[in-house]
Structure formats: C-alpha cells, structure tokens
C-alpha cells in the first residue's frame, strides 16, 4: 500500500461558494444563520482528530465520512471512513480507504457522543478494508483511492458501495477536465465475516475514465429493506470532488430483492421511471428517471427512520447540508430545508443519517469538515443530534 500524502491532493472539499445561489425560499427566511441543530444531544462533537479520543485509541487519528450502519447480526454499529491516517497530523502514516471503526451501543438520545470500541478489519488497530494498491492499476485502470459511499448489512453479509477515483485534479494527479467527474468506476464489495475480509462483485459500473462520464450509478445510498420486502437504493453521479460542473444534483431510484442483490443479479433491479405520462416501476430495460435535480449534490444519505424516509445531502454551491422527507421512497419529497451550513461549520461536507436515529424528527447526522492547513489535522468528523428534517429553524 502506497503512502498517499495530503500534499499530492488538492483541498477537494474546500472550493465552496458559500451562500451563493440561494433562492428567496432559503435566503428570505434567514436560514443561513440558523443554528446547526435543534440543540438536543451533540452539536458538532468531534469523533476523531482529538488526542486521546476513542478513534485514536483504535489506531485512527484522522479520517473523513464516518458513514454509520447497523451491524444487525449482533446489534452493534459500524462507521466507514474514507481516506484515513494513523495520527492527527497531516503526513503521518496513511491507513487507506475505506477504514472502519465500530461501537457496542449507540445512544440515540445524544446524551453520550459516539465512542468507538474496536477497529476493523482485525479487531486490532484500524486498517484498510479492501485489498488494492493506491495510485496503481489494479486490473481496471489507474486509480488513486476507493471512496465508500454507503454501507449496509442484511442476511449475514455486509456491503459497501464505493467509487474508484481516477483523479482529484491535483498537481500530481492525472489531468482534470471541466465537465468530467474524475471517476474510474463504481462497485460493490461484500464481507461474509462482518468486515474482516472483502470481495468485489465481478460487475462494475464504468465511470468517466472507462468511457461513461456522469454515470448515474456513481454514488449510492442504501435506504434499507422496506416492509414490502424490497431493498431501495438511491444513486447519483459521482461528485466527491465537489467540482463536477455537470452534476446538477440529479438523483434516481431503483429497487431489488435482497436475494438477487446478494447473488449479484443486478439486472434483476426494478427502476422508478416516468413512462407514457406516469411514474411506474419498470424492469431493468427501462432506465430510472431523475426524481430530484437542481441541488448540486455532493455526498448524500437516505434512510428509513420509523415509517418515514429521510434524506440528507450536501449542496456544494450553497455550502449547506439540507434535509427532505417522504412517506415512501417513490413518493414526492418535501421541500429541502437547510440544517447545517458552512457559516457554522467551515468547509463541511457529508451529512450521513445514522440509521439508529431516535426518530424521523430527531436525526443524528455524521458531518465531515476539511482543513487544508499543512501540519493540521486534515479532517474532522462531527456528530449532530436532534435534527428535525421537517422543521424550519
């Protein structure tokens, strides 16, 4: 595994046009100055980058994302990080991506912050989960890193959907071209021992540098298995750089039976599409239609909390994490409401919904923050509780 120094990558999270492009609905309501949470539980508590914290005790000093998922086999919780380092200072040993920390129990009330109790993949110190080499051709073309987008466990198997990054657009990276998303491909890896060893499905969704620029299968969010038995998945273009000028925030929806997903029969998916004047579920021969657009979406997260589907996403133009809700995955989504802005948390991104949130009106969000100052911790991951996605602050 090569050492991926921060100096070889640009501040991919920091080119944000904070506050620009706000419409009357947002700016007129004065929401950019709103408090970042409803003042319940944790309100920006750092989960790593603090000397002596529970992350560093597990060998992870600095990392981003911290995507939460439920380890249903033993009712514990996992957190999947992107690029991670052993210590909090930039330039210290690079762990890799993705990495994972876990905890025995989660306090949904927010009275106690998330505290990590062990690391994967071995239960010792944190290590890279996937077996691949950075800045190398691992059989699909040159790739810098594999960035996780979401994780889910069901039926005794754990799944991570990821994007392989061809370029971040840095001075030491392959050339960046406007309008290209910089991806190599997207894939799904699975583990049958709950995160110790990982295997890639043979099928991959080609990205920019394999001939499919702006693939709508670049970034996924597992909304969960609904009581109707289907696994619902939302997906969009890769925009981890936050510079994808063609992104536009378009999101699509598909669903698949859990057994078909486990077997890698991705062609068995059904797509939510607008056909002959109406929305309907179709087979895979009809591509999904765009259900949401115009949000300039970077990272996003959709989870079923109680009987409500909740969505959180980072608008890279507004520099703001917004939330929406719907009664069903294929129902109309509510008007987006800003909850955490870069006026309150500079250089923020992410905003992953914790599936163990107290309720659909009291969400826990895991938010990342970037610091491009040499010698400082490159990332923070922060916990916000008590967020009501349906209320204007």
TrEMBL record:
Keyword Signal: yes
Keyword field contains Signal: yes
A Pfam entry, by short name: DUF4185
Residue ranges annotated for the DUF4185 domain, each copy included: 51-384
Keywords from the UniProt entry: Signal
Region (Disordered): 38-65
InterPro entries: DUF4185 (IPR025442), TAT_signal (IPR006311)
Signal peptide: 1-39
Protein name: DUF4185 domain-containing protein
């Amino acid at each position: 595994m090569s050492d991926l120094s921060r100096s070889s990558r640009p501040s991919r999270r920091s080119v944000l046009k904070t506050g620009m492009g706000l419409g009357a609905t947002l700016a007129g309501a004065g929401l950019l100055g709103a408090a970042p949470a409803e003042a319940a539980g944790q309100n920006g508590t750092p989960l790593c980058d603090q000397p002596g914290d529970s992350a560093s005790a597990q060998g992870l000093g600095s990392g981003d994302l911290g995507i939460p998922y439920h380890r249903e086999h033993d009712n514990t919780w996992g957190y999947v990080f992107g690029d991670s380092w052993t210590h909090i200072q930039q330039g210290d040993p690079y762990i890799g991506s993705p990495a994972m920390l876990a905890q025995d129990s989660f306090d949904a009330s927010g009275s106690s912050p998330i505290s990590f109790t062990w690391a994967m993949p071995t239960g010792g110190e944190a290590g890279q989960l996937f077996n691949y080499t950075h800045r190398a051709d691992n059989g699909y073309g040159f790739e810098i890193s594999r960035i996780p987008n979401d994780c889910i466990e069901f039926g005794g198997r754990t799944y991570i959907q990821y994007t392989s990054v061809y370029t971040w657009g840095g001075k030491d990276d392959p050339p960046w071209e406007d309008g290209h998303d910089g991806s190599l491909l997207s894939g799904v890896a699975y583990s049958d021992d709950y995160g110790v060893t990982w295997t890639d499905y043979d099928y991959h969704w080609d990205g920019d540098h394999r001939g499919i620029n702006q693939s709508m299968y670049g970034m996924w969010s597992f909304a969960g298995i609904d009581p109707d038995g289907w696994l619902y998945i939302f997906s969009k273009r890769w925009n981890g750089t936050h510079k994808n000028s063609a992104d536009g925030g378009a999101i699509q929806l598909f669903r698949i039976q859990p057994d078909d997903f486990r077997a890698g029969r991705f062609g068995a998916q059904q797509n939510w599409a607008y056909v002959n004047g109406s929305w309907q579920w179709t087979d895979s021969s009809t591509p999904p239609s765009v259900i949401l657009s115009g949000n300039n979406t970077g990272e996003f997260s959709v989870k079923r909390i109680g009987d409500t589907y909740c969505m959180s996403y980072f608008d890279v133009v507004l520099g703001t994490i917004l939330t929406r809700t719907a009664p069903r995955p294929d129902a109309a989504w509510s008007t987006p409401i800003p909850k955490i802005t870069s006026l309150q948390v500079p250089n923020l991104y992410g905003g992953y919904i914790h599936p163990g949130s107290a309720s659909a009106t009291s969400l826990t969000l895991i938010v990342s923050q970037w610091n491009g100052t040499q010698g400082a911790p490159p990332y923070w991951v922060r916990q916000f509780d008590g967020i009501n996605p349906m209320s204007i602050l």
